[in-house]
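HUMAN:
Just now I want nothing more than another pair of eyes on a protein record. I would be glad if you read both lines and explained how they fit together. I have put the entry right below:
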Amino acid sequence: MRLFVAVYPPPAALDALAREVSDGLPPLVAPWRAVPVSQWHLTLAFLGEVAQDRLSELCERLSRAAGRSTPLTLALSGGGAFPAARRGQVLWVGVRGERSALDALRRLADRVGAAARRTGIAMPARAYRPHLTLARCRDPQGVDAASMVAALSGYAGPVWPVTEIVLVRSQLAPTTSHHPAARWPLGG
């Protein structure tokens, strides 16, 4: 099964961002494909295909990782595009918070990645860059997203508490769907 571990902003934060996207951005047209609001999240770690026989150990290790982490406070803020605004393939909104909260979020992502590796899941070595994906570009060369990035630059959403992590099953089909498989509170 295809899995990832995420943090989900609460409905008020998602509603505020949805209003900003609707009112402040030009309509997303091809080659952009908008991510449905119901799938907006902050990925802590993408695990890829995970064998069923690893799931129990993975869940145990993720529970411990969550238990060793404390709740934190974040807000969605600003925006950008990967790999760059002029060659955008992913349009995203960033995260802001006190330095201690952002450090705690990175440590949480590190713990989740370590839990996956200890379960035998290959995890790529890359720096964690917290973001919420708004849209993906179907053009492999990317497109100029500078105007959308500029429109998002001043966005500052409401502050919200992060109190849990979620293991999510992602099913690819003509329409991708996400299904929470398990949840663990931060701090046990």
User: Anything to note?
Assistant: The CA atoms of residues 106 and 128 lie 7 Å apart. The chain has a mean pLDDT of 94.
